[in-house]
Amino acid sequence: MRKIDLSEVAYVGNGLKRPECVYATKSGMIYTSHADPNGQGGIACIYPNGQIETILAEKGDVPEIFITNGYALMPDGSFMIANLGPDGGVYRLTRDGTLTLELDAVDGRKLPSTNFVNRDAQGRLWVSVSTWHDPRDQAFRRGVCDGFIVLMDENGGRIVADDVDFANENKVHPSGKWLYVNETMGRAIVRYAIKHDGGLGPKEVAAEYGEGNFPDGFEFDCEGGIWMTSIVSNRVVHVSPEGWESIILEAGDQGLIARSEAAYQNGDFNRDYQNEGNASPLGNCASICFGGPDLKSVFLGSLAGHSVSTFRVDVSGAEPAHWHF
Fold first, then answer.
1. What is the mean pLDDT of each run of 10 residues along the chain (325 residues)?
2. What is the chain's Cα-based Rg?
3. Which residues of 61-87 are buried (b: 16+ CB within 10 A; e: fewer)?
4. What is this structure's pTM?
5. 20 to 30 A from 42, CA-CA: which of 88, 93, 211, 270?
6. Strands 235-239 and 226-231
7. What are the angstrom distances between the C-alpha of 294 and each of 93, 190, 297?
8. Do 46 and 308 meet the contact criterion of CB atoms below 8 Å apart?
9. CB contact at 8 A, 119 and 321
10. What's the distance, Cα to Cα, between the start and end of the chain in Å?
11. How far apart are CA 222 and CA 59, in angstroms?
C-alpha cells in the first residue's frame, strides 16, 4: 500500500470546532461533529461548493453540556448522536435544531459519557461506550475492559458486549456478519459474530496494533483492508486482510510518540499525552472515511483541527450504509 506524504494532504472547510467524526456521501456532502467550547453541540455540513452549515442543538431535550462525538447519518436527514458530555446518552438531532433523547439508560443503569453511534445497513444502531468510569480518564490504561456495546433496535436498547478495552468506533463488516470495534487501550481491533437476533458472539482479536498506535476511528476498503486513525501519533494505519500493518500517513512528533509509548507500557498514560497530539498538522486525527465519486478520497476528522484533512489513495473504500443518503 502506497505511503502518503504530508505534502499530498489538502484541507476542506474552515472554522470547524472539534470535527471528531467525519462522513461523506455520494452527493459530495461532508459531515462532521461540531462541539462548541461552551458545550453547545451539533453537526457541521460542508457542501460541495464549500459552503458550511452548522446545525446546533437549540431546542428540545438539550442537556446542560452536549458534546457531539460519534454519530450516525439517518435516512430522513437527521443525525443520531453520542453525547460525550457527563450526562451521556444517545440523541436525535433534526435539521431544525430539535434534540430528542433516544436512550439514556441501559439494563437499568444510566449511560455515562457516550462515544459513538453507528447505523448499519439493516437500520440497527450500535453504540460504543468507552467505560463506566467517571471521569473516563481513569480507564486510560490497558486491561480495564469495562467498555461496552449497546444495540438499539425494534426491541429497545441492550448491552450486547461488555468486555471492550476502552471502546471506540464500531462498524459492521461489509459482509454483515461481524461487528468490529477499536479498543483504544487494548491497542487492537476486535470483532464479534452477529447472531440472528442481534446478539454477539465471543470477542475475537482481528488485529493488534503496533507501538505508538492508539486507535480511534476506522473504515473498511473494498479489498477487505482496515484503515485506522491513531490519536497521539497522528497516523493513518492500514491493516491488510491477512493482518499485516503498515503506516500510510504519519504526522506525529516522534518524541511524543516515544514518551506516550513508555507511559502506556508503564501504566502512566494520561490525557496530557493525548492533548500534545493536537499540535500535529492533522489536529489529532480521530476518524476516517472514504468519499469522492470513486470512493478513493480519504477524509480525516480530528480532535483539534479546524478543517477536514483529505488525500487520494489507490483503493476504493467499501460503500457505507449511508452512501446514498
1. 95 96 98 87 97 96 95 98 96 98 96 98 98 95 97 96 98 98 98 97 97 97 98 98 95 98 96 97 98 98 98 98 96
2. 18
3. ebbeebbbbbbbbbeeebbbbbbbbeb
4. 0.97
5. 270
6. antiparallel
7. 29, 28, 8
8. yes
9. yes
10. 30
11. 40
Q: Which residue has cell 444510566?
A: 110
* Residue 252, CB-side half-sphere exposure with 13 Å CA sphere: 31
Distance CA 167, CA 261 (A): 19
6-312 CATH = 2.120.10.30
Q: Which of 82, 84, 80 is nearest to 92 (CA)?
A: 80
Number of residues written out for the chain:
325
Here the cell at position 144 is 480495564
107 Cβ contact list (under 8 Å, min separation 6):
158, 159
Rounded Cα–Cα distance for residues 284 and 233 (Å): 8
Question: Per the structure block, which three cell numbers stand in for 147?
Answer: 467498555
With vertex at residue 111, the alpha carbon angle to CA 102 and CA 126, rounded to the nearest 5 degrees, is 60
Q: In this structure, are residues 321 and 73 in contact, taking their beta carbons and an 8 Å threshold?
A: no
Helix (H) or strand (E) holding 266: helix 254-266
- Cell 433496535 appears where? 153
Residue type at 35 in one-letter notation: A
Contact criterion met (CB below 8 Å) for 111 and 134: no
Is residue 94 a contact partner of residue 73, using CB atoms and an 8 Å limit? no
Which 3 state secondary structure label does DSSP give 243?
A: coil
